[in-house]
Amino acid sequence: MGIVIPEMGAVKNFARDNGMNVDDLHSVLKSDAFKKFVQEDLKALSIEHKLSGLEKPKDIFITDDAFSVENHCLTPTYKLKRNIAREYFASQIEEMYKKLD
Questions:
Q1: d(Cα 23, Cα 90) in Å, to the nearest integer?
Q2: Helices within the chain (DSSP H only)
Q3: What is the pTM of this model?
């Protein structure tokens, strides 16, 4: 499972290239087409870097809600607080695991 926070310039480019509304990036982020695009990119990267099956995400959740100090997912030195991030995205993570069953 993985939480993906894409670079918004890439989202705009995807929207433009695929005839989607560039002014409504939230809809682009939630689209099946964008999710498939990101998953294919992750798959290519995992092959390129020879990742094992355990290192490859089975499903992803895409959001524009970045990890930050303000939402307590990062420390002041920008290290990920895994337990807090897990709680912050608990419902999304649970939903991804339900899909696998």
A1: 29
A2: 8-17, 25-30, 32-48, 82-88, 90-100
A3: 0.82
